[in-house]
């Protein structure tokens, strides 16, 4: 049995792991969805979220941005992380089940990739710096960027 957790913000993949109000936890059996449920973590800190995912036996995480501490802890416990995913949670799940999901995907309906986040080293606040723009931008200290 394989368990996948998707950090949620409404019906979308949450932009940040540490601020996700909940997770959709999906159990797969031979590639088929066996069950799906939502787990609420609104008042949890990052360590509590990690502990909850471990308690649930999650082996794969789909999320937006994730801090280095959380990524390191999850990786240490054998959780595969697909970070910097943007789009609807259901589309991310479909893309993963098709074997096409990669970190940094921007998803469209049906799990199609309609773009990728582009990361580059940068400083400042202008386009491409990673601070408040929609082009992907630079790498922020302390954030996991595969």
Give an account of the 3D structure.
With 146 residues, the protein is of the alpha/beta class. It has a single domain, classed as Dinitrogenase iron-molybdenum cofactor biosynthesis domain (Nucleotidyltransferase, domain 5, 2-Layer Sandwich), CATH 3.30.420.130. The protein is 20% helix and 27% strand. The chain is built from three helices and eight strands; from the N terminus they run E-E-E-E-H-E-H-E-H-E-E. The chain has helices at residues 46-56, 68-76, 89-97, and strands at 2-9, 12-13, 22-29, 32-40, 60-62, 80-82, 105-107, 113-116. The strands form two sheets. Strands 1, 2, 3, 4, 5 and 6 form a six-stranded mixed beta sheet that branches. A hairpin with a 2-residue loop joins strand 1 (2-9) and strand 2. The longest helix is centred in the middle third of the chain and has 11 residues, at 46-56. The chain is globular and about 30 Å long. The model is unreliable at 123-143 (pLDDT under 50).
Separate helix tally: 3
Overall pLDDT metric: 81
Number of strands: 8
CATH class: Alpha Beta
CATH fold type: Nucleotidyltransferase, domain 5
Largest β sheet strand count, sense and barrel closure: 6 strands, mixed
The count of domains is 1
CATH superfamily heading: Dinitrogenase iron-molybdenum cofactor biosynthesis domain
Report Rg.
15 Å
Question: Secondary-structure element order, as H and E?
Answer: EEEEHEHEHEE
Percent helix range: 10-25%
Structural class given helices, strands, pairing?
alpha/beta
Low-confidence stretches: 123-143
Known CATH architecture:
2-Layer Sandwich
Percentage beta strand:
25-35%
Shape: globular
Instruction: Quote the distance from N terminus to C terminus.
Output: 26 Å
